[in-house]
Specification:
Strand content: 25-35%
Distance between the termini: 24 Å
Helix content: 25-40%
């Protein structure tokens, strides 16, 4: 692959001297500090660390949601910095899924409609949208709740909808930022099981930022972040 050339194959995402700072002068804060990292295809990787350690910023950089101050991110051997804006949009629509702690569901839409939305935006025909949405809702165990709106669902069910929405475009990489942060222990464990199964059974690369020891304990690899650096 392009880049340092020393990472094991197959590598789907890697970073090279990656840094991200915010602010200016004496007020500058370095959220990600010179990170070299390689993630293998199909790996379930957990990033752990205290709040403010840089986990979310690193996720955003690897997903192309933020731009580094210095260094590079490589996706399947291609430097994200060389992508045009339209190419980045296509990457996010087709190759990457993102799960947020706050779920991010649209209140007026049913679970099924929330899951369909990315496909609708991408211009997928409605029959195919419905088929794929039904398929991923079944995968996360929510077929019977497909017509319910978010306020009619529990927190765990809403997070399952969010996972289904992230999976409906068949992404190669699934990023999850504190996906169990607002859930009780039992519900959090069920979400952790889904993410583990998605990685093992679907071959999706899963990268999570988490405080949850149960979730990180199910991962293939755990990396700790301290003051923006990966230990």
């Amino acid at each position: 692959m392009t880049g340092k050339g020393s990472y094991p194959e197959p590598t789907i995402i890697s970073t090279e001297n990656l840094s991200r700072s915010f602010g200016w002068g004496d007020g500058t804060v370095t959220a990600v500090n010179d990170v070299d990292l390689a993630v293998s295809t199909g790996e379930f990787l957990a990033l752990v660390g205290r709040s403010g350690s840089g986990k979310t910023t690193l996720l955003n950089l690897m997903a192309g949601l933020d731009q580094p101050t210095s260094g590079k991110v490589w996706f399947q051997g291609k430097h994200l910095g060389s992508f045009s804006e339209s190419e980045m949009v296509q990457l996010r629509r087709r190759n990457i899924g993102f799960i947020f702690q706050s779920f991010g569901l649209i209140p007026l839409l049913s679970a099924h409609e929330n899951v369909e939305l990315p496909l609708h935006i991408s211009g997928v025909p409605w029959r195919e949208r419905r088929r794929r949405a039904a398929e991923v809702l079944e995968l996360v165990g929510l077929s019977s709740r497909a017509d319910h709106r978010p306020y009619e669902l529990s927190g765990g069910e809403q997070q399952r909808v969010a996972i289904a929405r992230a999976l409906v475009s068949n992404p190669e990489v699934l990023f999850a930022d504190e996906p169990t942060g607002e859930l009780d222990t039992a519900t959090g464990m069920s979400i952790a099981n889904i993410l583990r199964d998605v990685s093992r059974d679907q071959g999706v690369t899963v990268i999570v930022a988490t405080h949850d020891l149960t979730l990180s304990g199910m991962s293939d690899r755990v990396l700790q972040m301290v003051d923006g650096a990966v230990l």
